[in-house]
Design brief:
Largest sheet: 6 strands, parallel
Shape: globular
Number of strands: 10
Distance between the termini: 36 Å
CATH class: Alpha Beta
Number of domains: 1
CATH architecture: Alpha-Beta Barrel
Radius of gyration: 20 Å
CATH superfamily: Aldolase class I
Number of helices: 9
Strand order of the largest sheet: 1-4-5-6-7-8
Length: 302
């Protein structure tokens, strides 16, 4: 990136190691309630901030001006050693981009005799490229990866600037199975989806035996290239501004190829199709979302 902020002015300086480690003792009473599915209780930890990739649907790299900031490894090890939880979720946008760095971190964690069970975000191409590093992390406790697959066609992958192919996705999922790592996969449902596209997505997930699929609807978030669709936002406030309460990635906020009620029906069917897989992780209680009239609607969470 250049020396100037994307929205004017110099970029803000950020030195991660100047930020104090969280004082987790202030939440001791609540910590047993922190969980992600079977990972309970879970602690969150960050080793990097930002992402070097440029996916068109994502606002995270924009927020950080396209920069990728890293923490000093010994500080990360020290923080892990102080967390009483057995589970740790690496909340970096993509912690494994720098293979040698993360392989060294795995070595330091092992040398410190820290035994944890890890969940982290990861790109498919990182999983394929950094085989030794990913094996090292599996050996120190990596059990689960959140992989943003996003799309299952070459055209969509190109439109999203994922810099991946469908063949790489298939290879990466196979690699995760070889390592014994569970996959929490994220898929983007495009507003152009037809009923056939929904069926193809279901077949893809079933064919690749994806453990835990999750679904969002392509949304033109402010600050992203997808904002080109902003003029096509369907639902607006009386002052003409978008209904921001619907920008939760679970509502279609731009024109869909299918009639809107049919599109949303197909989207909600995706949860029904894979609900059985979720029950191994959590009870399907009732959460609430809002319909277009603002009324609460129960649904099984994903």
């Amino acid at each position: 990136m250049g020396s100037r902020h994307l929205y004017g002015g110099p970029p803000a300086e950020l030195h991660l190691d100047d930020i104090p480690v969280p004082d987790r003792t202030v939440a001791l009473g609540d910590r047993p309630s922190y969980f992600i599915d079977w990972m309970k209780p879970v602690a969150l930890i960050r080793t990097t901030v930002g992402c070097p990739y440029r996916c068109t649907f994502c606002s995270l790299w924009r927020i950080m001006d396209g920069r990728y900031h890293t923490r000093e490894l010994d500080r990360i090890v020290d923080e892990l050693a102080t967390n009483p939880e057995d589970f740790d979720f690496l909340v970096d946008d993509e912690p494994f981009v720098n293979g040698p760095r993360m392989k060294e971190l795995a070595r330091k964690i092992e040398a410190a005799r820290i035994r944890k069970r890890y969940f982290a975000y990861c790109r498919i191409d990182t999983l394929l490229r950094e085989r030794e590093m990913m094996t090292a992390w599996r050996n120190i406790g990596l059990e689960r990866l959140f992989i943003g697959i996003e799309a299952i066609t070459e055209d969509e992958l190109t439109d999203y600037h994922k810099k991946l192919t469908v063949a790489q996705i298939a290879d990466g999922l196979s690699r995760a199975r070889e390592l014994g790592i569970k996959v929490f996969a994220g898929f983007i449902v495009n507003a152009d989806y037809t009923r056939q596209d929904f069926k193809r997505l279901v077949r893809f997930i079933e064919h690749h035996r994806i453990d835990y699929p999750s679904f969002t609807i392509l949304t033109p978030l402010p600050g992203t290239p997808a904002l080109a669709n902003f003029d096509h936002v369907l639902h607006r406030q009386p002052n003409g501004r978008p209904r921001w309460d619907l920008f939760d990635l679970q509502e279609a906020v731009i024109k869909t190829r299918l009639p809107l009620p049919e599109f949303m029906e197909e989207f909600h069917k995706l949860r029904e199709v894979f609900a059985g897989r979720y029950t191994q992780y959590r009870d399907l209680g009732h959460s609430h979302r809002r319909n277009l009239e603002g009324e609460p609607v129960p649904f099984a969470p994903v």
